[in-house]
Specification:
Elements: E1 8-14, E2 21-27, E3 30-34, E4 36-39, H1 51-56, E5 62-64, H2 66-71, H3 75-80, H4 84-87, E6 94-96, H5 100-108, E7 135-137, E8 142-145, E9 152-155, H6 157-167, E10 171-173, H7 185-212, E11 220-225, H8 231-243, E12 254-257, H9 266-276, E13 283-286, H10 291-299, E14 304-307, H11 309-314, E15 318-321, E16 324-327, H12 347-351, H13 354-362, H14 367-393, H15 396-407
Parallel strand pairs: 4-14, 5-6, 10-11, 11-12, 12-13, 13-14
Antiparallel strand pairs: 1-2, 2-3, 7-8, 8-9, 15-16
The chain binds zinc ion.
Length: 419
Amino acid sequence: MSAASEFSFKVGTRLEGRHGRTGVISTPHGDIATPAFTPVGTKATVKAVLPETMKELGSQALLANAYHLYLQPGPDIVDEAGGVAAFMNWKGPTFTDSGGFQVMSLGVGFKKVLAMESVGVQSDDVIAKGKERLAHVDDDGVTFRSHLDGSKHRFTPEVSMGIQHQLGADVMMAFDELTTLMNTRGYQEESLERTRRWAKRCLDEHERLTAARSHRPYQALFGVIQGAQYEDLRRKACRDLEALRGEAGTGFDGYGIGGALEKHNLGTIVGWCCDELPENKPRHLLGISEPEDIFTAVENGADTFDCVNPSRVARNAALYTDEGRFNINTARFKRDFTPIDETCDCYTCANYTRAYIHHLFKAKEILAATLCTIHNERFTVRLVDRVRESLDGGYFDDYKTDFLGRWRGRIKAPGLQGN
Ligand SMILES: [Zn+2]
């Protein structure tokens, strides 16, 4: 399959003694300098912000969710438009997830794995309080109900691949089973084996669709590593996925690190995976964006990561700065005519004051969401840019210590005291 040459990864500077590195992912829609943060446009839009603005603020790629676009407007419409990038007028690389995360997490009522609490309860039938189970997993796939209208649907590895090929993103994820930290060890083993079998079916279907749709640019497929908090399972998952080949001999183009993990284990788990994964393939960490997590993930070998948080919290008036996170809704910003962050180079900080943005939230004006999303996305993209520069410049550890010292509030920013 010569089309695969349209996708490649080149390692740049390595972080001594650890798995961290810089690199370049080349896709048919452009290059991504890594490490890179990939903002999330769930339904083919980063809420409240123009795609041109996302480009201007330095976003190199966007990630859309297969589950949401499958339900609305439907992948056939996105396909007809020429793929998700063309559909949303985004001039750059795109990623899609497999839909598995949403199918299963919305189905059992857990929205975010990192936020899940493992309180020592182990049960394979646990669902979030007050939620009805909306997803049922069997060996062939997952049957679930739409969170929009309750209608019944079924995802299998083949269905997910079909949807993602129609969505046409440069990077797709294999369909995997999401477990929770509350599942028993026995269930995790069973689930991992199911995910491995599904990964093989994804490769086969991916080969078939790539050949059938040769008029389209090549789409890379990443295998997704599960295994929760278990070292042996994570390592096994990496080795298994690396060895997998489709009927025509295609292996995965890269790897996604997914699944249940607790924040304090993030670095350890990413480290186990990157011990096992081949050096010459990119690694995507699903669903992180907090500054501490970014340093941990990069240091341990993640090349790209996505998260909906910078835009989600922006709509709730929470803003990131080098000196920590604060809420612009509080009364002390009523007469504060300084920008959100003096050191930020975003459009919002160049043109608007805290007092104005505070007013917009109080008046429930939608421009508040736009201005704050621009700032938070720029903050996150720029932080990862600075991390990448620190790797290339050989001062990653100094930069990490300096940044996290300020972020955790050892050096308080004027105006943010008592936060
Ligand atoms: Zn800003």
